[in-house]
Amino acid sequence: MYSPKIDLIAFITLILTGLIPCAVNFPVLIQASQVLAQTPTDRKAEAERLVKQGIEQFQTSQFEVAFQSVQQALIIYREIKDRQGEGAVLNNLGVAYNILGDYAKAIDYLQQGLAIARETKNRQQQANILGGLGSAYLKLGDYTKAIDYQQQRLAIAKEIKDRAAQQQSLGELEIAYLKLEDYTKAINYQQQSLAIAREILDRKGERNALGNLGNIYNFHEDYPKAVDYYQQSLAISRDIKDRQAESIALNNLGSVYFALKDYTKAIEYYQQYMLMAPQIKDRKTEVVILENLAQSYAALKDLPRAIESYQQLLALAQQIKDQKRELLALFSLGRAYKQLKQFPRAIVYYQQLLAIAQQIKDQQIEFLALINLGIAYKG
Question: What is the pLDDT of residues 279-288, one digit of tens each?
């Protein structure tokens, strides 16, 4: 899907849970280094040492050599016929490829790991690997296979009473059914996920489930329910001091009230988002917020504030090279000044609009700019 920028803290968390990401452009499987220890016990200790070495290498951003360390560990586990160790490393490699977005390779490693987990009757590892396979197929858009693997994982997770794994599978099932537009099942699985998150006191999981439910009801234009779930999601985000999630909830609430044409409420949430924008540093979302904020003020006929927001929108759109919104801002500023009968200012913006339209050879926008320039000149 994309080549990720691996966050070190997130990586360390994965390591501590036995999930070891690997580097991009890594070499072919390398031969094990000179084996100092001769007994199976000593060789197993060497494999474990290599895994720990990989952790240290990742902590210092030596991703390729860290991957080599893990591959050396895999070779040793295979040589000493330690199927549990081999299966764990294969699972880790599958997780790594999932993180890197190479889902075909992720599936290959995970399938190898699953065969060993079934052979050794390791139910926990089976559940973990089935979840990884489900996630890979979900990213590939094969929702039928994603559902199949997550259902298998869910059954095992219930058997071994792994509530966290159950919650994760339910969340993935919700996404798959949402993609298949089976909204009844999507809501059902997300409600189950929410219940477990509350039971195990997983505040982030609870927050995510509430936000997802809000999204489903928002999509179906059941705005009262969407507002209710978004409000609960916002409250938890603030409680756990997750600024990124808080900003998402504020944006969602603003969008719902905008759809309801309750522009005063929409502005309230959009303004709260804008106060956080310097810390969030999500310019692509910020430009959308500014567009909606400006349009909300315009709908309320508060032209001075609409102009202020459109000017901010114009500056940001030019900065991030969002030409579509740059054109929108120029046209809207021209229209606002025209409504205020400040025709010289309107002409300035319409002329800029015309220049860009001619540059990109967009005849419709060029015609629109010329018509409005004519009106402004007649004033």
Answer: 989 999 999 9
